[in-house]
Write a structure and sequence with these properties.
The complex is a heterodimer of chains A (333) and B (434). Chain A is mostly helical and 333 residues long. Chain A has a single domain, classed as ABC transporter involved in vitamin B12 uptake, BtuC, CATH 1.10.3470. Chain A has 14 helices and two strands; from the N terminus they run ααααββαααααααααα. A two-stranded antiparallel sheet of chain A has the order 1-2. In chain A, a hairpin with a 2-residue loop joins β1 and β2. Chain A is globular. Chain B has 434 residues and is mostly helical. Chain B has three domains: 39 residues; 277 residues, ABC transporter involved in vitamin B12 uptake, BtuC; 99 residues, no CATH class. Chain B has 18 helices and four strands. The two termini of chain B are 33 Å apart. The chains are: A mainly alpha (333), B mainly alpha (434). At the A-B interface, α3, α4, α9, α12 and α14 of A face α6, α7, α12, α14 and α17 of B.
């Protein structure tokens, strides 16, 4: 599901042009995937650093966004859906915070994590109950269904440029809101000194609820715009969820800039890995047949694109060994 | 001891009675496991008992982490799966080389497999506790599960690896072909593992695990490294999960990548938490309930997993102690004889709560049938009463049951809380902690 490789990659064998093309296309795709990851991980990180809650259902909000987007596109068209679906998802997120997380806050963070885990499970079941388990026919809107530009021989779809623009715009808006506005000031203050903010007369509970809702809505936006480009299917949350956690652990828990770097990094790594077809056997020639079918031949023959799905987890293990607090994490909590 | 006996004989009597009761519980459990197949002798129930036995071991091993040490793992099934795969490979090797290792010892190899994996991955994982540990366990669980699909020669890819359990050397004249013999094998390992895991909770190690769960900083001050304690606990949990995996491999004669996957990890978390993590018998209850529901609900409804999710959310929100916690809450009331004060309010609350549950079930089933449309048909058979999922009447009934049931039930729940307070006050006055 994470393949951003252009569909018409009938790449002939040897040509420098082709290699360059692969690099250019994979870089754009990698940045795009990274920005999508950041749309999700930014919400997750802000919610985590504010409430200490690891929202296991965050990827489920992304999935809900995609399915709501798909259904609303059918009923009222893509553009209204792009606005409405994230609002709906945000409302669900706020309800989850208000009626779920807030009431079990007293039982500690593990209980909150378990609640969101149960929610993620239930949401997946509800989605597959309503929409079934097969992929949806969620199409790119006709307005954006044309090639934006041609790199060497590959047509790059305009819709992906649109995705890049939307996620970029949200990133900038988020940054300005958090750093330059009064709302952002209160949110930042509530992150570190919730009691003091409450003493100053702000309703911290409502701030939490709004942040949770905005985080969910951002995930919803990511779902709506990623739905047509990726596969909209009831297992999309299960596939993306663990990668999100890798991103925020890798970047350092609670660090927004860390989440940004990690999102881009993991997006690029995975996109390049999917595009590469090399293996040890390809590089050094086939293994001596005397090894027979064993672990060594398995490792020898596996291609880089095959190990792409596990690369984020390998990175997770590496960062835990080298720098347990993550890239930009400040403390070991 | 003799001194104590002569001076305060009453204390000795109660101590002896307690010890008798303590061992009595285990003896009763063992006897129950032995006679169970005589009472329910059909093939289906034997299979169910075998599965329940395996999942009890698995859930108890999980509770070493969650309940004892406070580590919430989302990837516990990797040890279960690893144990299963090692057991399969050992069984095949025993058959191929004609070693004299009979089948009953195979689960031990499963345990070793789980332990080895735990020792390898545990050091990195247990560096941190709490939420971070949960995320890391999820990531590493995915890593192991995905790697198993790449290393085909060991894990057999999608189809898995099979074996023949009857080809191993027989023991005591048992071939371990029939399910009844497998059941007794599982029951035997269940008793051994349960006793071992219970004993573990009573050792100084078990106590220091609890301390690490409750206050790692203080543990550090008294000279223990919480990381090492967590690591050791992780090793034990991996070992017993591996035994469960090995038994599962023997039971099904196959091990595949589903053993290692996130779904398996999720089920054991559900079982343990629904049962209750604070008491040793909690995961046992949970494993019995969840396995039973898993086997029973799949025949009745297509969306049984959704019910799991709802039950789990309900437990997390309203009874974080799980079923065991709910039961044990009543102990002081039973002892002080004030249980009668809350029972009427329970009975009153039962009606609207059941109505609410019926409404939810009706709504879920209607949506499920409606969405799936043709094929499954739109007629629901709910507890013998037929409904038409497409008719507005059904939807209306479901809405009435949910909304009405919820509001009436909420009143009755408040009544329970009031009755509970009164009963608890009386119990406290009579000297029983509530």
């Amino acid at each position: 599901m994470l393949e951003f490789v252009p569909r018409n990659n009938a790449i002939p064998d040897t040509s420098e042009c082709i290699v360059l093309e692969l690099i250019v296309i994979s870089t754009i795709n990698g940045v795009l995937f990274g920005m999508l990851l950041f749309l999700l991980s930014s919400g997750l990180t802000v919610i985590f650093s504010m409430m200490g809650v690891l929202n296991f259902a965050h990827a489920s909000f992304y999935m809900l966004g995609a399915f709501f987007g798909f259904q609303l596109t059918r009923w009222i068209g893509f553009w209204p859906a792009l606005v409405l679906a994230p609002l709906l998802v945000g409302a669900i997120g706020m309800a989850v915070e208000r009626y779920g997380l807030r009431s079990i806050h007293k039982h500690g963070h593990v209980a909150e994590l378990l609640l969101t885990f149960g929610l993620a499970f239930a949401i997946e079941e509800i989605v597959s109950m309503i929409w079934g388990k097969s992929p949806m026919d969620y199409r790119v809107p006709a307005l954006l269904d044309f090639p934006a530009f041609t790199v060497f021989s590959t047509n790059y779809p305009a819709y992906k440029i649109f995705m890049l623009a939307v996620s970029g715009a949200i990133f900038v808006a988020l940054l300005i809101t958090l750093k330059r506005t009064r709302v952002g000031l209160i949110v930042q203050a509530a992150l570190t000194h919730p009691n003091m903010v409450a003493h100053l007369g702000h309703n911290v509970g409502r701030v939490f609820m709004l942040v949770f809702g905005v985080g969910a809505a951002l995930a919803g936006v990511a779902g709506v715009i990623a739905g047509p480009a990726l596969v909209t299917q009831s297992d999309m949350a299960t596939l993306l969820g663990p990668i999100l956690f890798v991103v925020i652990v890798f970047g350092g828990l609670g660090s927004l800039s860390g989440a940004f770097i990690a999102s881009l990094f993991i997006g690029l790594v995975q996109t390049f890995a999917v595009a590469l077809n090399g293996s040890l056997a390809g590089a050094f020639g086939p293994l001596d047949p005397s090894f027979g079918p064993s672990i060594i031949t398995d490792i020898w023959n596996v291609t880089i694109s095959q190990i792409a799905p596990i690369l984020p987890y390998v990175l997770l293990v590496l960062i835990l060994i080298v720098r347990p607090m993550g890239l930009m994490g400040s403390r070991e909590t | 001891m003799i001194d104590a006996a002569t001076s305060v004989p009453k204390v000795v009597v109660t101590a002896r009675a307690q010890r008798l009761r303590f061992y009595g519980v285990w003896v009763i459990a063992a006897v129950a496991l032995i006679v169970l197949p005589f009472i329910f002798s059909s093939g289906g129930s034997l299979t169910s008992f075998s599965l329940i036995g395996i999942s009890i071991i698995f859930a108890l091993s999980y509770n070493i982490l969650l309940g004892q040490t406070g580590l919430l793992s989302f990837g516990h099934a990797v040890h279960y799966g690893f144990g299963g795969f090692l057991a399969i490979h050992v069984m095949n090797a025993v058959t191929a080389h004609e070693w004299s290792i009979p089948l009953p010892f195979i689960p031990l190899f499963g345990g070793i497999g789980g332990l080895l994996l735990a020792l390898v991955i545990g050091w990195v994982m247990t560096k941190r506790a709490g939420t971070v540990f949960a995320m890391i366990s999820l990531g590493i669980g995915e890593l192991v599960a995905s790697s198993s699909l790449i290393l085909r020669s060991v894990f057999g890819g999608e189809s898995g690896i099979t074996t023949d359990r009857t080809a191993l050397p027989h023991m005591l004249g048992w071939s371990f072909g029939p399910q009844i013999q497998i059941y007794y094998l599982i029951a035997f390992w269940l008793m051994i593992s349960a006793i071992a895991m219970y004993a573990l909770t009573r050792t100084p190690l078990g106590r220091i695990c609890n301390a690490v769960r409750d206050n790692p900083e203080r543990v550090e001050f008294i000279g223990y490294d919480p990381h090492v304690v967590r690591y050791i606990a992780y090793g034990f949990a991996g070992f017993f999960a591996g035994i469960a995996g090995g038994l599962s491999a023997i039971n099904f004669e196959i091990a595949n990548s589903a053993y290692l996957g996130a779904a398996q990890s999720g089920i054991v978390l559900f079982a343990t938490f629904i049962g209750g993590t604070a008491y040793f018998f909690g995961p046992i209850l949970g494993a019995i309930l969840v396995t039973y529901l898993q086997l029973g609900l799949t025949d009745v409804t297509t969306v049984w997993q959704l019910y799991f999710g709802i039950i789990f959310i309900g437990i997390v929100m309203f009874a974080p102690g799980g079923i065991a916690g709910l039961l044990m809450m009543h102990r002081p009331l039973v002892r002080s004889g004030t249980l009668g004060m809350v029972i009427p309010s329970y009975l009153v609350a039962l009606v609207p709560t059941l109505a609410l549950a019926c409404g939810v079930i009706l709504a879920i089933e209607s949506v499920a049938r409606y969405a799936q449309g043709e094929g499954s048909g739109s007629n629901i058979d709910l507890l013998g009463v037929p409904f038409n999922a497409a008719s507005p009447l059904t939807w209306f009934a479901a809405a009435i049951l949910i909304i009405g049931g919820f509001f009436v039930a909420r009143i009755s729940w408040r009544r329970i809380a009031q009755a509970w307070d009164r009963a608890a006050t009386v119990a406290r006055d009579r000297g029983y902690l509530a």
